[in-house]
Amino acid sequence: MAPKDAEMPSYETLRDDIQTIAKHLSSLRGDIDKVTASVKRTGAHQAEHARDAASDMLTSVEKAVQRDPVTAVGIALGVGLLLGIILRR
Hints:
mainly alpha; 2 helices
């Protein structure tokens, strides 16, 4: 049995509801864009920080090798030997 006209929502009410939903979606889209930009800035900052830390560490290793090259070669041989044993198994 089909619903009576009095029970069916009016087209104006549906149109208003659709417009309200469209406004909410537009607002949500703007909020998502802001969050995306914030995450992008944070990620770029963290990547720059990681690059700086890696550069500092590399400089520190280079200085240590220049101060005591024999020890550096011994450490490299030891690490290579351990990796060889581990990878061989």
